[in-house]
Amino acid sequence: MGGDGGGGWSTLGDIRALEQKAKEALQKAKEAPQDGNRNVFISFATEDMNEVNLLRGQAKNDKSDIEFNDHSVREPYNSERAEYIKRKIAERIQRTSTTVVYLSANTAQSQWVKWEVDKSRELGKRVIAVHSGANLQGGKPAWLPKDIKVVPWSKLSDEL
Fold first, then answer.
1. Greatest distance between any 2 Cα atoms in the chain
2. Which fold does the domain 33-159 belong to in CATH?
3. What does the alpha-carbon distance between residue 39 and residue 34 come to, in Å, rounded to a whole number?
4. pLDDT tens digits for 94-134?
5. CB of 36 within 8 A of CB of 65?
6. Nearest-CA neighbor of 92 among 65, 114, 72, 66?
7. Angle between helices 82-94 and 111-122 (to 10 degrees)
8. Residues 47 and 107 sit within 8 Å (Cβ to Cβ)
9. pLDDT tens, position by position, 23-58
10. From CA 20, how far away is CA 157, in angstroms rounded?
11. Which strands, in side-by-side order, build the sheet including 149-152?
């Protein structure tokens, strides 16, 4: 019985290489969608919550594989809690692959939606804008970058 200590696990370099592989595997698992679902951060003006909830419900009924991760903000953009809220939202955006911006007549006035779009792009996330109905009513907000694709909500899963 006993061994000669061979097998390659005795060197520090081998342990570090194994450690690095484990870290990479954990990071990939964190970034990968769970249960085959695509994790999406949805950005919308608080005034649009009811409509967004209806559209989310429709996606669930259609057995969509999109998991929505939204955190509507009712605090004023310049409130005392704004920095804390921004940190928490940034953490949520970081855990997703795509930010979906719901466009409505209220979107252009929402400083939170603008901030979420800017933060998503800063974090290297894909941003797609969606609207209800076949055609966008009222146009895109002036602050929305021109390179962001705009699609009807019904076509969102085709874009993800």
1. 80
2. Rossmann fold (3.40.50)
3. 8
4. 888 899 999 998 898 989 899 999 999 999 999 999 988 88
5. yes
6. 72
7. 50
8. no
9. 666 555 555 544 455 678 888 888 888 888 887 776
10. 35
11. 66-69, 38-43, 98-102, 126-131, 149-152
Tell how strand 66-69 and strand 98-102 pair up.
unpaired
Altogether, the residues listed in the chain come to a count of: 160
With tokens 């990479």, the residue in question is 24
The residue type of 80 is E
CA-CA distance, 72 to 43, in Å (whole number)?
8
pLDDT confidence band for 84 (50 / 70 / 90):
confident
Which pTM was predicted? 0.69
